Amino acid sequence: MPRKPSIGGIVLVLVVLGVIWGYFFYVWLHNQAGRSDTNRSPVVISLVEIAPRTTITGDMVARVPFPRDNIAPDAITNLTNVVGKVAVDRIKVKAQVRVSDVVRQGQTPTFSFSIPPGKRAITISVDEVRGVGSGIKPDDHVDILATYHDTNMRQDTTRMLLQDVPVLWVNQGETDSSSSAGAKSSITLAVSPENGELLTAADRAGVLRVMLRPVLDKVVAAGSGVRATDIQGNAPVAPTPPKTSGGGTTIIRGTESFTAP
């Protein structure tokens, strides 16, 4: 009669199998780590939120491996190029620190550093009503409405002028979005050069009003425009297709929409 395996023999077999499995698992982990390292490169990131015009110290930043596909083209890779420099604008927590984010000590960061490439800063006047009850702050995005006298139709018309336009600063150069004060006298916007022309002409032709957009809302509405007769129950104005041209989405353009006096 064959002998039954003893408990000790079974335990020994299990131990041997466990050692073999552990070895192969270690080799697999080592290979995975090697593959991961080959797809990463070190970049400097912020460990805390860094306010504008703050001198950056060593405890505010760190050099960490980052997936290569997610590294910004102008990301800084060496701590010596960041520590001791001055932040141009607000740097968010865990954000990659870019060349455009910092300047040398003694080199005063001006407002021009905060203007996105290809854009221009332009200021329009607001008050409590036209500026959404003083609720607009830097880093918000807004839509711009224009009310003007349509000389062809001989009546006042309101149309959506621009959408999703970033606010750079408010009032007299206030750039701190965490401040309790909002826009009371003016807002400065980042727009493309052509939209700067459009905004200036619309401001000259009539009255501008600002609408504050919800955070992360990128929906572009095809506004139809409203004339004075529309509020009396007449047919609305035909919708104008949106046109994207940078620095906000242009809904109308030049003499197609209004005639400056």
Tell me, briefly, the overall form. Answer: elongated
- Can you tell me the residue ranges where pLDDT is under 50 for at least 5 consecutive residues? 252-261
Q: What's the end-to-end separation, in Å?
A: 114 Å
Strand fraction equals 25-35%
State the helicity in percent bands. Answer: 10-25%
Mean pLDDT value: 79
Helix run count: 2
How many structural domains in the coordinates?
2
- Category from helices, strands and their pairing: alpha+beta
Strands, count: 12
Radius of gyration: 29 Å
Main pleated-sheet profile: 8 strands, antiparallel
Q: Which H/E pattern describes the elements?
A: HEEEEEEEEHEEEE
Compose a concise summary of this entry.
With 261 residues, the protein is α+β, with helices and mostly antiparallel strands. Helix content is 17%, strand content 26%. The chain has 2 domains: 69 residues, Antifreeze-like/N-acetylneuraminic acid synthase C-terminal domain (Type Iii Antifreeze Protein Isoform Hplc 12), CATH 3.90.1210.10; 137 residues, no CATH class.
